[in-house]
TrEMBL record:
Annotated Pfam families: ABC_tran, BCA_ABC_TP_C
Domain ABC transporter: 5-252
Protein name: ABC transporter ATP-binding protein
Transmembrane parts of this sequence: none
Family that this chain belongs to: Belongs to the ABC transporter superfamily.
The organism's place on the tree of life at top rank: Bacteria
Annotated GO CC locations: plasma membrane
One MF term in the entry's GO annotations: ATP binding
CDD domains cross-referenced by the UniProt entry: ABC_Mj1267_LivG_branched (cd03219)
Record organism: Mesorhizobium hawassense
Keywords (A to Z) from UniProt: ATP-binding, Nucleotide-binding, Transport
């Protein structure tokens, strides 16, 4: 299977702290890959580096074969590498559906000249976006909440909306930072089935997650970081019995 993300010798220091240290790994296209490790291992920093929010000190990041480590976060996102974000405060006053319709960039209707001169084209585009938004809401199971105000959703439903906003942009690779954190057990099950569905629709998923049940059930491959480095990569069962991984989670105490 082809690699969609390739990371080579990636490093980033914050003052005296080497947050990411010569990190190397790759993610296969169409996979669900887990990224785990103890607190402070460097997982979120790695996501920030890959999505262009933080610049690496050295190393390479390739997305679908193309170097992206010098690109802005906006350019990385436009290539199809997206990450979820919390719903901004202003958007919480809008409905779920409106939140999705705001995602597509460069809409004709954004330009007053187009609205006045190309009304038919603007309406066609709006109709198309509405159709895509309804499909995305169906996929994440939020169709019934389409006209609800985003602020009134539960914590888990807000996570689904964050995911839905990402899907509107038709990503190829989606980075999810602790998608099940603060979500109740019933909704975690739903979220897992949604993530499988999203993956089956062709989106590669790279997931940081502390819930090991989620990692074990969802991921075909798991990458383990500790102190800025990748210390193991393999199937969930191989990772579970890896001595170095167990030691990292036990704080360096031999098991
Ligand atoms: N902007 C920053 N400035 C200074 N230090 C930072 C910065 N971002 C991260 N760090 C430090 O880098 C190290 C790695 O942090 P990071 O958040 O990447 O780890 P993590 O594996 O995501 O941890 P957790 O699971 O607790 O979220 C930590 O020691 C953290 O304090």
């Amino acid at each position: 299977m082809k690699e969609i993300l390739e990371i080579k010798c990636l490093s980033r220091r914050f003052g005296g702290l080497q947050a990411v240290n010569k990190c190397e790994f790759s993610v296969r296209a169409h996979s669900i890959t887990g990224l785990v490790g103890p607190n402070g291992a460097g997982k979120s920093t790695l996501f920030n580096l890959v999505s262009g929010f933080v610049r690496p000190d050295s190393g390479e990041i390739r997305f679908a074969g193309e170097r992206i480590d010098t690109l802005s976060a906006h350019s990385v996102a436009r290539l199809g590498l997206r990450r979820t974000f919390q719903i901004p405060r202003e958007l919480k006053q809008m409905t779920v559906l409106e939140n999705l319709l705001l995602v597509p960039e460069n809409q004709f209707g954004d330009r007053i000249v187009s609205v006045l001169s190309q009304g038919k084209r603007v309406r066609e585009e709006e109709g198309k976006n509405l159709q895509i938004a309804r499909g995305v809401l169906e996929m994440v199971g939020l169709s019934e909440k389409a006209t609800h105000q985003a602020a009134l959703l539960s914590g888990g439903q807000k996570k689904l909306l964050e995911l839905a906003r990402c899907l509107m942009a038709k990503p190829k690779l989606l980075l999810l930072d602790e998608p099940t954190a603060g979500v109740n057990p019933t909704l975690i099950r739903h979220l897992m089935s949604v993530l499988r569905r999203v993956n089956e629709s062709g989106v590669t998923l790279l997931i940081i997650e502390h819930n090991m049940t989620v990692i074990m059930e969802l991921c075909e491959r798991v990458i383990v970081m500790d102190r800025g480095q990748v210390i193991a990569a393999g199937s969930p069962s191989a990772i579970q019995s890896n001595k170095q991984v167990l030691e990292a989670y036990l704080g360096g105490v031999s098991a």
